[in-house]
Specification:
By secondary structure, the chain is an all-alpha fold. The protein starts with a helix and ends with a helix. Helix 1 (about 1-25) packs antiparallel against helix 2. The protein has one domain (about 1-170). It has helices at about 1-25, 30-55, 60-65, 70-80, 80-100, 105-120, 130-145, 155-170.
Length: about 170
């Protein structure tokens, strides 16, 4: 519990933000999409810079993880090749961010990447602010399943889809 005490404020804030993100995926999908784009863009840049400056700072995640498999991986192969792993993760985060600003299939691929990423880092426990990453993955799933995406700067795209969805529902029922 000492570890959670040390990180309680960012942990609570992160989980609150991702609960809001999950709600936004349902009611204001453009806000969710912009939030996730900014998050993945900034995470990519931060991780890239940190990996180059201090790659071994990521080893703290071994002590924060829920599962021994993750701790063993972090203290083993990951510790030996930290820069490579973090640059790969950073590149993946940048691809997700890029997909979120584009449309249709690119956004769908970004959502799939976000779902995989969210569930993959969830066992890092407090280090990934679990369950925030699960909320994030669920928000990506809602975006993937419920909407046809256009470029992110087309702010009214989801309003039109809601109207189309309501007309289709009324015609069927």
């Amino acid at each position: 519990m000492e570890t959670l005490d040390r990180y309680i404020i960012p942990y609570v804030i992160t989980n609150a933000l991702f609960l809001l993100c999950l709600a936004a995926a349902i009611w204001k999908p453009i806000y969710c999409r912009v939030f996730l784009f900014l998050l993945f863009l900034s995470a990519s840049i931060f991780n890239g810079i940190t990996a180059l400056a201090d790659p071994h700072s990521y080893l703290v995640f071994g002590e924060l993880s829920f599962h021994n498999f993750y701790a063993e991986f972090i203290y083993g192969s990951f510790a030996e090749h930290t820069l490579t792993y973090i640059l790969i993760i950073s590149s993946g985060q940048m691809l997700i961010a890029a997909g979120l600003i584009l449309k249709r299939h690119f956004t769908g691929l970004a959502c799939l990447g976000g779902i995989i990423f969210g569930f993959a880092i969830a066992p890092l426990g407090i280090g990934s602010a679990f369950p925030a990453t699960v909320f994030m993955a669920l928000a990506f799933l809602i975006l993937l399943r419920n909407y046809r995406h256009d470029y992110i700067w087309k702010w009214d795209q989801y309003k039109t889809q809601l109207i189309e969805t309501n007309h289709v529902s009324a015609a069927r029922g």
